[in-house]
Amino acid sequence: DVEASGFSPRLKTVEGVQVDRSCARQLTQLLADCRESGCTITVTAGYRSREEQLKLFNNEVDRQMMAGRSAEAAYTIAEQRVGAPGTSEHELGLAVDIQGTAAQEWMKENGWRYGFILRYPAGREAITGRSADDAHYRYVGLAAAEQIYTLNITFEEYMEMFYTQEAEVIFEK
To answer: Which has the higher per-residue pLDDT, 18 or 165?
Structure first.
């Protein structure tokens, strides 16, 4: 749960979308380089408050129920498609949604160079627990993004390979 973690994003605006400061400079450079390559790219979503996430989640539940699904099924589908409040990476300020087919293809090949990974790749739904989403990119940092891209693994697989509950993180300046 994002709120329970105690994490509080330090927000900075990049092209009208708020993201955590830790990824703002890399996102700015990514957007410039993507455009320089000839792609049109737009960031359509970044940070969301818990309230915004709750509204999107409830809207998806309502859509699913209006389509004839039971409340339980609607809730499960909304979890897979939107993410329940407290579980969305958008609440961290580390996720962005990218618009444009050419831009999404460019991101698949180059996003890692800026610390961003395709978070929910097609064919990996059983691992991520979420529906495939070619628009959703998560900032994980340069080293982690390169490893995830090179090994062609999901974030979940990366965390399982490199981190344990007992892991101790030591930061050096």
So the answer is: 18
> Is residue 46 packed enough to be buried (19+ CB in 10 Å), middle (13-18) or exposed (0-12)?
buried
Predicted confidence (pLDDT) per residue in 37-76, tens digit: 999 999 999 998 888 888 988 888 898 899 998 989 888 8
Using the CB atoms, write b or e for 84-119: b if 16+ within 10 Å: ebeebbbbbbbbbbbebeebbebbeebbbebbbbbb
- Could you write out the DSSP letters of every residue in 103-127? HHHHHHHHGGGGTEEEEE-TT-HHH
* Residues 6 or more apart in contact with residue 51 via CB below 8 angstroms: none
Q: Contact, 47 vs 90, CB < 8 A?
A: yes
DSSP string, 47-81: ---HHHHHHHHHHHHHHHHHTT--HHHHHHHHHHH
* pTM for the model: 0.84
165 vs 77, 97, 115, CA distance in Å?
29, 30, 24
